Amino acid sequence: MNGQGWLEGLGWFGGLLPTIVAVLLLAAITVTALGVANVPRPTSPFWAILRGSLQLAALSLILSGIIGNPWWVALGLVVMFVAAVYTASRRIRASRAQTIAVGTAMLTGNAVVLVIVFSTGAIEFSPRYALAIGGIVIGNTMSIATLTGRSFHASVRDHWEEVEGWLALGARPIESTREIARTAIYSALVPSIDQTKTTGIVVLPGAFVGAIFGGASPLEAGRFQIVVLAGILAAGALTAIILLRLIGAVALKPDAEVFTRRGGRPFASRR
Predict the structure, then answer these.
(1) 199: which strand partners?
(2) pTM (two decimals)
(3) Which ranges constitute the DSSP H helices of 177-266?
(4) Rounded to whole angstroms, how far apart are CA atoms 250 and 167?
């Protein structure tokens, strides 16, 4: 039996086997390269790939049964959003109050974008498109919230003498970190801005490629993609700005690990 016949004999698993082999080889290259370079935690990419594979497998099975049902799609988006807020909050080591701030910022950014996209008719309002665009925007606002919080936290520590100087001059805590917050917001948006600027030249985004594979014309796929990219930037900007408006009032130097909240004071360290 030749190779093709052997794969056909394996049925569904035979169609999946080349994918498994390719992914394992790519993961092995990643782990080996990081190990040779003595990079910390070189096996982390492997575990990330494994976890992502299992999650995608579960998601694929679930979506096949709910893609046409608006209520199940709405529930799916809620689950995605909660997981995104949890992940972003954990990455910035947020307190309970900060977690609420992360959720508020992300919810605002996502809601505004989805309302505009569907109310204007730019994208057809259907369970399939709501799930696709909602999932993409939620995932990107999660990353932007994480980058914003981490960059802000690190910059406050690095420029604490400047912040302390403003406080000594009578500035309110939110005013003393204003410039740091602006820089953190822009830094968090840079990856999305660069992706948008290089789309079609350097980058072929996933939404565009997915629409092509789904049978859409290149023009239709391009229209879908530019709406998605604009939505990511809008949702990300709103998320970052609102997040730092809510957590940016720092009265004491934050410790290296996490902001905390004590009494009614702004977010600050235990020291």
Answers:
(1) 203
(2) 0.74
(3) 178-198, 206-213, 218-247
(4) 10
Give the per-residue pLDDT at 140: 93
Taking the C-alpha atoms of residue 74 and residue 85, their distance in angstroms, rounded to an integer, is: 17
In the chain, the domains with their CATH numbers are 1-66 (no CATH), 67-271 (1.20.1640)
Length of the chain: 271
- Cα 254 to Cα 263: distance, rounded to the nearest angstrom: 16
More confident residue, 169 or 22: 22
User: Which letter does DSSP use for residue 250 in this model?
Assistant: B
Query: Is pLDDT at 254 greater than 70 in this prediction?
Result: no
Q: Kindly report the average pLDDT of the chain as a whole number.
A: 80
Tell me the torsion sign for CA atoms 146, 148, 153, 157: positive
Residues 6+ apart with CB under 8 A from 220: 211
Does the pLDDT of residue 194 top 70, yes or no? yes
Residue 195 has pLDDT above 70, yes or no: yes
Cβ 262 vs Cβ 98: under 8 Å: no
Which tokens hold the place of 101?
Answer: 């701030």
Closest Cα partner for 249 from 100, 109, 98, 103? 98
- What is the share, in percent, of the chain residues with pLDDT greater than 90? 31
Reported as a single tens digit per residue, the pLDDT across 38-48 is 888 899 988 99
Q: 139 Cβ partners below 8 Å, 6+ apart?
A: 80, 84
Helix, strand, coil tally for the chain in percent (to 5): 75, 0, 20
Report the alpha-carbon distance of residue 54 to residue 103 in Å, rounded.
Answer: 26
